[in-house]
Design goal:
Blueprint: H1 2-23, H2 25-135, H3 137-144, E1 146-151, E2 155-160, E3 172-178, E4 184-190, H4 196-206, H5 209-224
Antiparallel strand pairs: 1-2, 2-3, 3-4
Length: about 230
């Protein structure tokens, strides 16, 4: 209140009056000067520490910023490391697949070469058989009234005559080939015979071709009397 303020001012005046009477004006001035000097020093020191504190805050902010950047870089490096590991794993898988593919191709090449050799061997054997049959042509023609012709697809056509006593020039014909398994196979027969399958099986088992041709002629002869 105003009364209290007036009372406080009065007491302060009384205090300064007593202080001056005790210490004197000069000492009071020195005390005041010392006080002012201390206040200036404290103010300068406060400003200095305030500046230091601000610099410290800025330094802390910079440290936090650098820490965040380092953390981000670490995360980025970790992600790159994981990606690199994944790429290496994929490369290893591709290398294994490439190796397996190379092995498969090599196996197919070897299998193909074996098949080529087998086919070549079978073709050679088939040609040798056809050649042997052709060499026997004269013998069959003289003894059995047989004419042998080589037709398309490496087939041989056998034409019998002098079978039908009513018509000696009537042809009895069958066509023979060598199949992929290297066996004799009759592809046509005119007139048809019921015993073809049996005779074909027998020649495959015995490999006696002369007997096979003779049996075919016998079957044609028997058919001509029916």
């Amino acid at each position: 209140t105003e009364d209290e303020i007036i009372l406080f001012e009065r007491e302060m005046k009384e205090f300064w009056t007593k202080l001056k009477s005790i210490y004197g004006t000069e000492q009071i001035n020195q005390t005041l000067a010392l006080r002012d000097s201390c206040k200036e020093s404290i103010k300068a020191l406060s400003e200095k520490w305030s500046k230091k504190l601000k610099e410290g805050d800025l330094m802390i902010d910079k440290i936090k910023e650098y820490s965040n950047e380092i953390l981000q870089q670490s995360q980025h490096i970790s992600e790159n490391q994981e990606h690199l590991t994944e790429i290496k794993s994929n490369l290893n898988q591709e290398e294994e697949q490439k190796k397996d593919l190379t092995n498969s191709i090599q196996e197919l090449k070897e299998e193909l070469m074996k098949k080529k050799e087998i086919i070549s061997s079978k073709n050679k054997a088939a040609k040798e058989r056809v050649e042997r049959l052709c060499k026997s042509k004269v013998l069959f023609e003289e003894r059995l009234g047989l004419e042998i012709r080589r037709i398309h697809n490496e087939q041989l056509q056998f034409i019998f005559r002098h079978i039908d006593h009513k018509d000696p020039d009537k042809p009895y014909v069958f066509t023979l080939s060598i199949n992929e398994q290297g066996d004799y196979e009759m592809t046509s027969c005119t007139p048809p015979l019921n015993c073809i399958a049996e005779l074909q099986l027998k020649v495959r088992e015995t490999n006696n071709f002369s007997a096979f041709v003779a049996n075919i002629r016998k079957a044609f002869t028997a058919l001509s009397y029916k």
